[in-house]
Specification:
Protein name: Phosphoglycerate mutase-like protein
Number of domains: 2
CATH class of the largest domain: Alpha Beta
Pfam family, one: His_Phos_2
InterPro entries: His_Pase_clade-2, His_PPase_superfam, Histidine_acid_Pase_euk
Distance between the termini: 66 Å
Bound molecules: 2-acetamido-2-deoxy-beta-D-glucopyranose
Order of helices and strands: HEHHEHEHHHHEHHEEEEHH
Keywords: Disulfide bond, Glycoprotein, Hydrolase, Signal
CATH architecture of the largest domain: 3-Layer(aba) Sandwich
GO molecular function, one term: acid phosphatase activity
């Protein structure tokens, strides 16, 4: 081939393409829904397999801002902004702050945005297309917060032809439910919502220091703090799901490496809060997994698909209960905290919260009926997180990351030995706690 032909083929194939980076895929709990292809396996069931039943745990869709993020980081920054005499027009990449107005007000906190509603509807449509043979579910479950109820409703409208045929069942979020709710962390005194803030603060100081100094150079009298930086980065996510885009997401404002710093700080927080760094995490996630295994393996389930809506805390605990995204996997060691150093990023970690719990995060467990080359015909089970198939540890003897029925039964039992006993582990003060999630039993 002539060199010029080779060059034009190379260009067409993007061989010389510029480096690119998407901040929205690194925003941890504020990431708008995306499918990270982690790992990049084909989401379709393996050759010869049909999905015959499925169970989904779904985080609510995008909201205006949660109370904590707003009060701790965003509002202090926006209040300061209202009251500053800085001439932003001279502040280079921050010049947009001269006219920028906050998209969030006190009244809308915690509410679903229009983008969130649309995305929940869209996920409903997507799920219906994944399982064309399924009957519409009689019930869909949701914890009772307005944002979870509304997410469930929009999802149902996307999923089924006639939404009046599907009941939305509200599962109380109150404390004394033990494991029998979609918010089991609320009734567990061994869980603390602030776990991880001490550790993540250490990394916050490290990654924000150069940003603070850079911004100080641009606008000395604003007195930027580490928390202002966090608030501004959070605004990238929230403003995007409110207005469709945000000037804070510009790579002129924060560089790719600065976004990765924000992401790692969050990953440390979730590691110690609802991840492998908190011994109670798997205990909180196990009841949903056990209940799901029950309906998937039962001979007479009433529904083809079981779907439950919850908050950001539950999906990562379920991930731990199932042993997925485990930084220590294949290492032969088990020292989870050492895998998330507080002074430097572990870029090779499996634990990336943006990929585990974005808005509308969804974790599916499916029953497959397979007659596949190289495997015995029969029932298999597989887990799909945000549309990427995952294999369970020591439970992947089937086609396409799936696990045979016998192995799966053993797996559910073994995880129960690790993480069962909610009441004993959580030691709640109320005396009617339970270890099992029973919401699906009378479906
Ligand atoms: C606004 O700025 C003025 C002057 O710098 C200061 O005295 C006042 O306390 C500030 N108000 C708020 C709400 O921060
Ligand atoms: C749902 O609505 C449709 C159309 O309005 C109606 O024909 C159907 O009977 C309703 N189904 C139920 C279960 O109420
Ligand atoms: C325990 O009792 C409280 C108060 O009566 C009730 O709201 C709650 O549902 C009960 N929990 C369970 C697991 O039955
Ligand atoms: C700047 O912010 C820091 C941290 O909040 C505070 O301690 C300091 O007094 C502030 N300085 C000025 C000049 O406002
Ligand atoms: C990891 O750190 C947390 C918080 O300090 C601690 O509770 C947990 O036991 C540690 N995990 C291990 C395996 O040492
Ligand atoms: C994570 O992986 C290590 C190494 O395989 C294993 O010892 C540990 O039990 C796993 N953690 C969980 C919660 O599954
Ligand atoms: C999967 O579904 C197709 C189409 O309905 C059917 O022909 C095939 O036999 C099914 N395979 C298994 C293993 O159930
Ligand atoms: C799993 O669920 C079943 C059915 O509800 C229950 O009998 C069993 O005790 C549960 N396992 C654990 C470890 O909680
Ligand atoms: C549980 O606690 C309630 C209120 O504290 C008390 O009335 C009830 O007798 C207790 N039940 C049992 C079985 O201990």
């Amino acid at each position: 081939m002539l060199p010029s032909v080779v060059l034009s083929i190379a260009l067409a194939n993007g061989a010389l393409a510029a480096y690119s980076f998407k901040p929205l895929e690194h925003l941890a709990g504020i990431a708008p829904y995306f499918e990270p292809a982690d790992p990049p396996l084909d989401p379709k069931p393996a050759q010869g397999c049909n999905v015959t039943r499925a169970s989904y745990l779904v985080r609510h869709a995008a909201i205006y801002a949660n109370d904590f993020d707003y009060e701790e980081y965003i509002e202090p920054f926006t209040d300061k902004l209202k009251n500053t005499s800085v001439d932003w027009s001279k502040a280079g990449p921050l010049s947009f702050l001269a006219t920028w107005q906050t998209p969030i007000s006190d009244e809308e906190l915690e509410e679903l945005t229009k983008v969130g509603e649309l995305e929940a509807f869209q996920l409903g449509v997507d799920v219906s297309l994944r399982y064309p043979g399924f009957k519409p579910p009689k019930k869909v479950w949701t914890s009772t917060a307005e944002r979870t109820e509304k997410s469930a409703q929009s999802f149902i409208e996307g999923l089924v032809e006639r939404s009046n045929g599907t009941e939305r069942v509200s599962v109380p979020e109150s404390k004394a439910e033990g494991a029998d709710s979609l918010t089991p962390y609320k009734g567990c005194p061994k869980y603390s919502s602030s776990a991880g803030s001490k550790q993540s603060s250490q990394y916050k100081e490290i990654y924000t220091k150069p940003i603070v100094e850079h911004f100080h150079d641009l606008a000395p009298s604003f007195n930027f703090t580490a928390d202002d930086i966090v608030g501004m980065q959070e605004l990238c996510g929230y403003e995007t799901v409110i207005r469709g885009s945000s000037p804070f997401c510009s790579l002129e404002v924060f560089s790719p490496n600065e976004w990765l710093g924000f992401e790692y700080m969050n990953d440390i927080q979730y590691h110690y809060n609802t991840g492998y760094g908190n011994p109670i995490s798997g205990v909180l996630g196990y009841p949903w997994f056990n209940a799901t295994a029950g309906v998937l393996m039962s001979d007479d389930s009433d529904q083809d698909i079981y779907i439950s809506f919850t908050h950001r805390e539950l999906p990562p605990t379920l991930v731990v209960a199932m042993g997925l995204f485990n930084n220590s996997a294949f290492s032969g060691a088990n020292n989870p905290n050492a895998t998330m150093p507080l002074a430097i990023q572990n870029h090779r970690r499996a634990w990336k919260s943006s990929r585990i719990l974005p808005f509308l995060a969804n974790i599916a467990v499916e029953t497959l009926s397979c007659d596949s080359y190289g495997f015995d015909a029969g029932d298999y089970f597989r887990v799909v997180v945000n549309r990427s198939p995952q294999h369970l540890p020591d439970c992947a003897d089937g086609p396409g990351e799936s696990c045979s029925k016998g192995k799966f039964e053993e797996f559910v039992k073994a995880r129960g030995e690790m993480f069962g006993g909610y009441t004993e582990q959580c030691q709640p003060e109320y005396n009617n706690s339970t270890n099992v999630l029973s919401i699906y039993e009378d479906a």
